[in-house]
Amino acid sequence: MDSEKKTPPKKRKTRIAISVIAALFGVQSERNRQQDFNQQSPRPFIIGGIIAIGLFVALLITITLLVTAKH
User: How far apart are CA 14 and CA 17, in angstroms?
Assistant: First the structure.
């Protein structure tokens, strides 16, 4: 937890984003998963997951509308 306080905010956000994406695809390494679970708060990962799922659903809807659009 002490190392998390020393990590710059930009690097921390990038690490959270990478962890969320890796977890969504099911390729999260055990070492990274353990680091994520040892964080002080799960809130950033939950919010990141909700945002990632929302973007994924929006992408699917957009693709569906483009493919089924009548020209």
Answer: 5
Is residue 7 pLDDT above 50, yes or no? yes
Question: How far apart (Å, rounded) are the C-alpha atoms in residues 28 and 62?
Answer: 28
CA–CA gap between residue 37 and residue 41 (Å, rounded) = 9
Closest by alpha carbon to 44, among 3, 28, 4? 4
Host H or E run for residue 42: none
pLDDT average, residue stretch 47-51: 94
Q: Please work out, in degrees rounded to the nearest 5, the angle formed at the alpha carbon of residue 65 by the alpha carbons of 64 and 66.
A: 90
Q: What is the pTM of this model?
A: 0.72
